[in-house]
Every structure is written in structure tokens, then in C-alpha cells.
Amino acid sequence: MTTAANHVRHAAYKPALAWFAALGAGWVFVLVTLGAFTTSIDAGMIFPDWPLSHGSINPEGWLENLAMFAEHSHRLTGMVMGLITIALAVWLWRTESRRWLRNLGWSALAIVIIQGLIGGKRVLLDSLAVPGFEMTLGQMLRIPHGILAHLYVCVLIAIAVSLSRGWLARAEPVSGALRRLGLLATVLMVVQLVIAATMRHNFAGLAIPTFPHSTADGGWLPAHWNFHVNIHFAHRVMALILTVVLVWFAAKIWRDRGASLLLRCGASVLVALLTLQILLGAHVIWQLREPHVTTAHVVVGAMLLATTFWLTWLAHRDAIEAPRAAP
Fold first, then answer.
1. Rounded to the nearest 5°, which phi and psi values hold at 134?
2. Among residues 124, 139, 170, which one ends one of the domains?
């Protein structure tokens, strides 16, 4: 048998592994939330040492001090995430017949190791100045740390979805136009992620302090330009582009004959998250980056990327499996 459908059917559904992968994909959002909140209240350097916090895994007073709680909880959650990823990679290696899926497990493990090292170096190199830049080397490392975290989310979702019962069941393929639009939407989401991380960690979130206009007198373009204004304005422009593309993507799913009920429901979730994200982005400006609102904006952004990637991954199911079909 050479068809993708038959090949996928040969990969037996493993409920324990599938649920464990789903647990990992869910736990990563706890990690993202704590990381976003830590940054929002500027608590990333509350502990100047790493991997321990004040030389301990249980530093004194961390349950009473909000900044200490945020950063230490983030570290502990990251440690748990690492253990989950190790177990998942080994489990896939020992039981999964699809080589590409086993490789995804090792990729997730590689990312989580790199993430841990970047997070540690961000602390240890915080005081190391970089000639020509306002940010220290440690502060610069916050940007790739934030970007890689979101890409890690996508890898975990790919693993969890590929182990699910629905993925292993036969399904009608969607149109090539829908798959291409999903890829475009996902790429644009990643571009927006890079812009947002650069803006956030350069403290440019209020570089344009009015919304939806860019000036107090109602102008759409900023009155002056510099790096902080440029990156903030780019974030707004990309948000407008993404609004069009994501709504188009959702509408394409709703109209596609091959789209399953799951895909159609996912498209509705996508539009709902997009609406919520726009409202949160406005309130970040209106409430002067209030930490809880800012954290929610980061987390919903991660969920929006995850949903876009999830729908795109599902749409490419046959293409993902077909090249690996065994004779």
C-alpha cells in the first residue's frame, strides 16, 4: 500500500502517548504566561544567579514577593517543561513508527535545551555592555528567547496533533489554495512575532501612545520617527495585514468542501482570538501597558499563532504523510 491514508492508518493510535503530548502542548502555555508576566513587571533580573535562585531551588520569600514569585515560578515551570520534553522525545523514539515524528521529538528537546541556555545567559550576561547599543548582551538575549518560545509551542502542537486519533483517521483533503493561504498566514504570524518581541524588549510598547491614531490630533502616521517608533508602527501595520489574511484564511476554511467540522470550528476560534487580540492591543495602549493586560496580549498572541499553525498543519496532513508512505 502506497497511499498516505493507508500509511497513516498503519501508525497505531497510542492514547497514553497522545494524551501526554497534549499535556505538554498545554503546559507550555503556562510557561509562556509566566514568562510574559515576568517581563511585564520587569522581574527578569530579580535573581542575579542561575540556574538556582539566590543559590536555592526554594529561595526565601519567593511566595510572598510578586516579582520573585513570577521569575522563580517561570524557572520551575521551565524545568518541568524540560522533563516533559525529555520524556516525550524518548517515548516517541521508542514507540513511534514515523521517523519524521521521532525527529520532531528530538527537535523539541533541542529547542528546550537552547531555550534554557539562552534564559540562563540572559541573566548571567545582563551586565555585559555591547558597544553601540543601549541594551546589554543579556537584555538582547530576551528577544531570541521570546521568539524561540513561540516556535517551540508550534513544534509541540505538531507532535500532539500528529499523535491524535483524528489525524490517524481518513479525511478528505482540502484545496491547495487553502494550504498555501495557511502557510502565508503562519509565516506572517512569525514575522509579527519577531516584530513584537523586538518592540517589547526594546521598551517600545508605548512609543506611539495613542490608538488607533498615531498622534493625539488624529494623524495616522507618527509625527516623528526613530527606532522605537518605527518598530511600534511596523507592529501596527503588520497587525492590520494579519487581520485581513487571517479572516481570509478562516473564510477559505468555511467554504472549502474538504474542510472537516474540526477545521471549521478552528476557523471560528481563530477569528475569536483575533478579535480579542485586537481589543487587548488597544487596551495595552489605553491602560499604559498595565501588566495583566500586557501579559494577556502576549499569551493570546501565542494562542493565535498556535491556532493558525494548528489549522495549517491539519490542512497539510496528506502532504506531510504522503512523502513518507511505505510501499
1. -75, -35
2. 170
